[in-house]
Amino acid sequence: MGRPSLKDQRRLDLIRACIQSIHEDGPEGASLARIAGRANLTAGIVGHYFADKAELMEATMRFLGRELGRETAQRLSAAATPRERVLAVIDANLSPEQFRPDTSAVWLAFWGRVNHSPRLGHLQRINTARLHSNLRHALRQALPGQDDAVRRITLGLSTLIDGLWLRAALDNGGIDPAETRALAAHYLSTALREAEAEERPAVAQERAPNSDRESVHD
Q1: Which element (helix H / strand E) includes 44?
Q2: Is the pLDDT of residue 106 over 60?
Q3: CA 127, CA 161: separation in Å to the nearest integer?
Q4: Which of 86, 139, 195, 203 has minimal CB crowding within 10 Å?
Q5: Tell me, what CATH number does 5's domain have?
Q6: Whole-angstrom Cα distance, residue 84 to residue 54?
Q7: What is the gyration radius of the CA atoms in the chain, in angstroms?
Q8: Looking at the domain assignment, is residue 113 inside a domain?
Q9: DSSP symbols for 16-37
Q10: Virtual CA dihedral for 71, 72, 78, 80, nearest 10 degrees?
């Protein structure tokens, strides 16, 4: 790959400065002037790359989403079984990288604005759809033909991942980030066992009529 263009590099510098400013100055204190200063640029030049702070915030969230997507893809490529693929998605979304103070600050600021910004709301729907897709794909391999169970576990896991991340990301959340992955993995194991137990009687019932007919013919 070649070197990024000056425009791309400046945009990346501003995105990284935005992350740092939100972390240190708070979402309200992260003005374009402060962000530009952290990127060693003047406030006036920011307009050449982003129309306003909202557009810069959106670009920052897309950047973090791509970073999460890359980590998820790397972990999925190393997974050998369907269960390992689900665990790979869990571990990526609850990895130490996602709990870095600067990263957490931006995600928290993002979530706080989702209901008031159509553009950020659209990004949140994309993020949720991607998480559901990754979980659903692996769960369908683990539970073939059990669409209801796949849907239930996908929804349960995605909700648990978001909730665990939020609790651990808060300063006084009362849960260690490393514990979040263990809790999500425990939920997965329990949910898979329950789904497999539900499937066994159904399979036995499907086979029963054939067995009865065979015994009559014998």
Answers
A1: helix 43-46
A2: yes
A3: 13
A4: 203
A5: 1.10.10.60
A6: 38
A7: 23
A8: yes
A9: HHHHHHHHHHHHHH--HHHHHH
A10: 170
